[in-house]
Each structure stands twice: as C-alpha cells, then as structure tokens.
C-alpha cells in the first residue's frame, strides 16, 4: 500500500509509493516505472478530455497515465470514493491497463484511501499528494522548501495511523495501548513539534520580507503582480518585460518562489512580481503554507491576470474562475486587474478574432514572440495614470537632491532652468504629494 515515510527526527517527510515487483515488495521509481490509472467523479456535463488536468499533473510528476476511469454521481462515496459496484469494474480496469498506481482527482479522506487500496490491490494517491510531490521537486529556495515540508506534514498528520498497523497486533488488553499506539502518539508529537518549528521559521522569513516590502513602499515604486493559472506563461512574460532570465519550462508549477524584477516605463520604475501559479482545487494546505508568498499579490497595486489564449474558451473560463477563487481566498479579490491573453503566437487568424470578441478588454500578447508587449506596457501605464497628479515645482539649485527624489517617484520630468532654480512640471503619485508641498509653485 502507499507508504508515508516520517523520519524519527521529524525533519523530512516524503510520500513513497510501494508496489509489488517480480522480486517482492519494492519502491517504484516514479520517474520511470509508474503507470497510473486516473480516476474521478463527474456530473455528466463535462466537455473535452476527461481528467485532463490530473493527467497533466501526473505528467509533470513523471508518471505515465495508463488510462482514465470515471463514475457519474452527485458526490463521492464517503467510504470508498466510488460505489461498490464500480469498484469491482475498476479493479479489472487497473489490471487491463497494467497500472501500478491509482491517482484520484480529488483529495481523499484517509479511510477512502485505505478502502480503495484494499479493494484494488495497488497504491492509491490523491490529487493533493501529486501536487505536493511536484512542489517538493520544484522548490529551490530555503523558504520554498520549508513551505512544502509544512504542507506535507499537515497533509500526512491524518494519515499516520496507517504507518504502524504492523505494531498494533502487539498491543492487547482492554485499553489496547500497546507499542503500536504509543509509536503513533510519539510520531504525531514529533510531527506537531516540527510543524510548530516550521511555522516559527516561516514567520521569521515573512518578517524579513516585510522589511524589504516596507523599503519598496517608502520608495513609492508602483508594484505589479503576475497572477494566473499555472503554465499560462507568467515567467516568460516577466522575462519579456524586464529582461530577466527566470527559468521557464512547459510543465505545471515551474515557478514556486516569488521573483521580483524592475522595469521602466516613460522614465518611471515599476516592480513586477511573478508568483506561484494557481490551479483548480488548489489544496488548502498549500494556500496556507504559501500564504506569505501569495501575499505579494495582495500588496500589489495592479494584478496582471495572465491567461493561456491557446486553450478553448471553456477551459479559459474555468482557469480564470480558479484564479479568481484563490485571489478571493488570499484577500486580493478587489485589486485592480488587467487581463492578458498570452500565447497569441499559437492562434490562427480566426482564433485571434474569436478570442478578442470574447474578451474585448484584454490585451493579446505573445511573451515568447514579443507580440503585443508595447500595448501591454501602455495599458500598465494607463492603469497607474489615475493615481498621478500634475504639479508645478520650483527646486532651488542648492537642493539638487530633491530633484533626484522627485525623479524617483515621477519618472520623466519637464524642466526649465531659471535664475532661482529648476522649474519642474511632473506627474506625482497622489500619495507622495505631501513630500513636495514646500516646493509647489503658487
């Protein structure tokens, strides 16, 4: 059965999927040998490829999809996910597909997972376990690794009972508090201690980031956050706008750690942040663990919502809805937003016409080919134009530092040198006007 390995020190948690091979029980190399049958509940109204997103998650995790099995019902069975009759058919489908793993499109309760494994005779993993596995593989920064470990521990806490079933037989008597039960309690205590330690370290990291945020806020540099469905091309767009060289790849959740780069428009500096991508049914553990990372979006002045234009309109709407849900959950639902349809280079002329009709207020771009980027820059400028106020200032020659200070917040200036100093016409953020009250020309 699926085995969750928890070290005695609580310092590392990983999910391993054991399977029988020709020589007995062993750990399957998930990168080369796992073949999963993808299963899910449907309501009969889905269009397109069934469980397409789960299959893409499995591909990103290095697992081949051997087949798809669904059951139409209002909600999953609370004990077995599928109904009893469908389980008998599913066991035959697992054998026919030569699958050594079953992957479920929803998060399973521990009893559902145990009952499915008992009925099917192969390891069963749910959507959350697959996503956690991908996150563990893609986390590179120290903070990202802490966030993933925290999410893994919280996910596995409820599943620890299955770790020590081989010891429960040793505990007899009325109270049944044998070595097995004692080991479970010990393991849970270690896990709780580790979770508390991780949260403390993440709070410290968040405080350090808060200091950097405060510095950016004092500089009044406009902040733009890229949000969107995973693999919509946010990192490619960041590179195209800022000249950065952030790694990109055609797989889900390639970017986990927030990346902030600066770029210039009309002489004014802007900060652009790329954050973790969203997905349907994003596990709550990940939203909680990555709250500090996602907070970059809540603190932005403008959210650029990046959507994959090459998807079908139905898929685009679903992706946009999933992003809206997460933005609402993290408190960024009311932020000013600019819709960007990326990957225009993959569209035909007819498809371009259709997508612009469906989303007339969006900017159609290709971050990879550079198409539409100038219009995007203009739209970003326009979004901030409403926050600017035109002023006339006179800066004495002996206060040259004030001119530099003004340039930092206003960008390009119109200046005229006069006998008393530099007369400046500028557009200043309304929130920063008080800094230059003493220089205002009556």
What features would you describe in this structure?
This protein is 41% helix and 22% strand. It has helices at residues 52-60, 84-96, 110-120, 127-138, 142-157, 165-168, 179-219, 234-242, 284-289, 291-298, 313-329, 349-358, 373-385, 400-410; strands at 2-6, 13-21, 24-27, 35-42, 64-72, 101-104, 124-126, 223-228, 259-265, 268-274, 302-308, 337-342, 363-364, 388-395, 414-417, 422-429. It is elongated and about 90 Å long. The chain folds into four domains: 2-138, GTPase HflX, N-terminal domain (Rossmann fold), CATH 3.40.50; 141-219; 220-384, P-loop containing nucleotide triphosphate hydrolases (Rossmann fold, 3-Layer(aba) Sandwich); 388-439, Alpha-Beta Plaits (2-Layer Sandwich), CATH 3.30.70.240. The longest helix is centred in the middle third of the chain and has 41 residues, at 179-219. A hairpin with a 2-residue loop joins strand 9 and strand 10 (268-274). The strands form four sheets. The protein has a six-stranded mixed β-sheet with strand order 9-10-8-11-12-13, sandwiched between helices. By secondary structure, the protein is α/β, with parallel strands linked by helices. It starts with a strand and ends in a 13-residue tail after the last strand.
């Amino acid at each position: 059965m699926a085995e969750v390995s928890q070290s005695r020190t609580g310092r590392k948690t990983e999910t391993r999927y054991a399977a029988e091979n020709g020589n007995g029980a062993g750990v399957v190399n998930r990168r080369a040998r796992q073949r999963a049958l993808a299963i899910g509940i449907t309501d009969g109204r889905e269009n397109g490829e069934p469980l397409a997103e789960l299959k893409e998650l499995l591909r990103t995790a290095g697992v081949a999809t051997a087949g798809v099995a669904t059951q139409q019902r209002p909600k999953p069975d609370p004990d077995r996910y599928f109904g009893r009759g469908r389980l008998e058919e599913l066991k035959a489908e697992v054998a026919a597909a030569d699958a050594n793993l079953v992957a479920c499109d929803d998060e399973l309760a521990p009893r559902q997972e145990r009952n499915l494994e008992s009925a099917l005779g192969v390891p069963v993993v749910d959507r959350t376990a697959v996503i956690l596995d991908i996150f563990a593989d893609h986390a590179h920064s120290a903070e990202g690794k802490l966030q993933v470990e925290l999410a893994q521990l919280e996910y596995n806490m409820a599943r620890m009972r299955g770790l020590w079933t081989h010891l429960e037989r040793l505990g007899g008597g009325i109270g049944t508090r044998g070595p097995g039960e004692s080991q479970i309690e010990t393991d849970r205590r270690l896990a709780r201690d580790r979770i508390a330690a991780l949260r403390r370290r993440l709070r410290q990291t968040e405080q350090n980031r808060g200091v950097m945020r405060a510095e950016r806020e004092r500089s009044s540099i406009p902040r733009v956050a890229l949000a969107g469905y995973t693999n919509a091309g946010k990192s490619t767009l960041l590179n195209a706008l800022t000249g950065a060289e952030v790694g990109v790849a055609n797989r889900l959740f390639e970017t986990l750690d927030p990346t902030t780069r600066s770029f210039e428009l009309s002489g004014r500096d802007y900060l652009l942040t790329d954050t973790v991508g969203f997905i349907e049914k994003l596990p709550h553990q990940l939203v909680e663990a990555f709250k500090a990372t996602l907070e970059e979006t809540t603190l932005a002045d403008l959210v650029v919502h990046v959507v994959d234009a090459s998807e079908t309109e139905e898929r685009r709407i679903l992706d946009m809805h999933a992003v809206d849900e997460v933005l609402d959950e993290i408190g960024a639902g009311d932020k000013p937003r600019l819709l960007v349809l990326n990957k225009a280079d993959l569209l035909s002329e007819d498809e371009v016409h259709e997508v612009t009709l469906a989303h007339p207020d969006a900017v159609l771009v290709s971050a990879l080919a550079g198409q539409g980027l100038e219009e995007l820059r203009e739209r970003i400028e326009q979004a901030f134009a409403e926050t600017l106020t035109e002023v006339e200032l006179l800066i004495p020659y002996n206060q040259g530092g004030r001119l530099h200070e003004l340039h930092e917040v206003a960008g390009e200036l119109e200046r005229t040198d006069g006998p008393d100093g530099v007369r400046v016409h500028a557009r200043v953020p309304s929130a920063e006007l008080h800094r230059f009250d003493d220089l205002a020309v009556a």
